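Query form — protein DUF4007 family protein

QUESTION: What is the three-dimensional structure of this chain?
INPUT:
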Amino acid sequence: MSSTYTSASNKPDKLLTGFISVRAPELKHIYGSLQGPTSVSEITSKFGRPTSDGIKTEHIEETIRFLNAVDLAESPSGDIRDTVQKINEDHFEGLPFEARLLYHCNQQKGRQQHFTDLHHALMSEERRVVSADRDDVRTILKRETDYDFSWTNEKIDMWVTLCEGLGLISETDDGIVMSPCRALMYCAFSLAPANSDAEVGYDTGSIEDGEFRHILDWIHENLFTVYLKRSGALRVHPAIADVLRNMEDGGVLSLSAPGDAKNEVKLPPPNLGEDRRGNRRSVTHVSIHSCPDETAYQYPLNQFLIHQ
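ANSWER: The structure tokens for DUF4007 family protein are given below.
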């Protein structure tokens, strides 16, 4: 496994959420199809959309440009419209595409940090379900972020659709559910360093007594928001706590807090009406066991394929 992360060359300036035609299934399939330097015309002919006027390829070209924008691909010829190849493929070798893409989106700087900040802003609501009304979402973003562009419906829709495909969130009639899928959470724990002496690397083997705060800190900074935006003792967001409890109930995680342990993290109770200081569970260590072969531990894209 390579520990070096390389930024792609000749990256587009376009905002990540400006790639409104990009979807998770096509990103995953096209990225997976790249075997060495590949002609873009070969990709567009394979994945293009047949119509009465011929094969439509614009969305495929946008998908390739997005992969370039997040350092997953670049052109060996210097022209992303001509040839493309994977980069950083040895970085976290074996990591599923969904977690890999989120990690890469989180490495982007400047205005491209807006992709990560959107999730952070919605998680500041401290609610499991956030209103899906785009005006309501826009109000949160204007309050929590400061970018010199408009949060249009198209940008928000792109982020919601992509992140739903990756298992970070889901959208229902009730709103945007902020709980990540268990597959993503398991990958996050398997990737994060278990303690200050460990290196980052994807390992699906068991981990005993990992440092809970150290792991969550890394996930919060590199994959997705886990903490509430509050001072004092670190508290896990209710949506994240729900997933951890589900995984613990299923025997996939074990959470503990020895009496003399430091660096504790607080989990809110299931009933948020009882979320007060004395009802929050302290956790300092986590053990990670084997991932079960169950639908609940599959990414949404894999679940869709399984049920075809």
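ADDITIONAL NOTE: The longest strand covers residues 207-211.
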